[in-house]
Design a protein that fits this description.
This protein has 187 residues and is α+β, with helices and mostly antiparallel strands. Helix content is 30%, strand content 12%. The chain has a domain of 100 residues: Glycoprotein, Type 4 Pilin, CATH 3.30.700.10. It contains two helices and five strands. Strands 3-4-5 form a three-stranded antiparallel beta sheet, covered by helices on one side. Strands 1-2 form a two-stranded antiparallel ribbon. The longest helix has 52 residues. It is elongated. It starts with a strand and ends with a strand. The relative contact order is 0.09.
Length: 187
């Protein structure tokens, strides 16, 4: 066991000194007394000063591992929701086109031909006397959620007699999942 000794200044008045206790006190009236204390082991010595708090490499690696695990679990779900929301957006836009085509039919007496396409909803087609368009809000045709134009076909052998199709994320006919075609016609 090791001991260290500090010399500490103190008030010599009897009131401040208090009762004499033990051998480590100086004789009465002295200005100094000896204080005995145990030295702290080197592992418990705390250094105070201007040291900056910092994270260790292990702590940063643990945090990065936790973040990557969370992203690995949550990321695919978020991407799946994004894909589903694009499909829902395409369905809503196709329904909006169907309503606009019905208004066109009421005014003109026919649906636009395949060659006129959906552009007939925003620009008067040739040879049409009564046209109260544009039938699409904003006066322009939106692309599908993947940035590609919608495909319009007329006539077709079902009701309604037209087909409005988004080719999905791959931009090609057919496909599965998010790449599947989206249409106003149920198969």
């Amino acid at each position: 066991m090791t001991y260290s000794f500090d010399i500490v200044a103190c008030d010599a008045s009897p009131k401040a000194r208090g009762p004499e206790r033990g051998p480590d006190r100086a004789p009465s009236g002295s200005q100094f007394h000896r204080r005995e204390s145990r030295a702290e082991p080197a592992s418990r010595i705390r250094i105070s000063g201007r040291g900056r708090a910092a994270y260790t490499l292990v702590e940063m690696l643990v945090v990065l591992t936790i973040i990557s695990l969370i992203l690995g679990l949550v990321g695919p779900r978020v991407l799946n929701y994004l894909g589903e929301s694009r499909v829902k957006t395409a369905r809503l836009q196709i329904e909006s086109f169907a309503s606009a085509l019905d208004l066109f039919y009421i005014d003109v007496g026919r649906y636009p031909s395949s060659s006129e396409g959906l552009a007939a909803l925003v620009q008067r087609p040739g040879g049409v006397d009564i046209w109260n368009g544009p039938y699409v809000k904003g006066g322009r045709l939106p692309n599908d959620p993947w940035g590609k134009p919608y495909v319009y076909r007329f006539p077709v052998d079902h009701t309604p007699p037209y087909a409005i199709v988004s080719l999905g994320s791959d931009g090609q006919e057919g496909g599965v999942g998010a790449a599947a075609d989206i249409s106003n016609v149920e198969h």
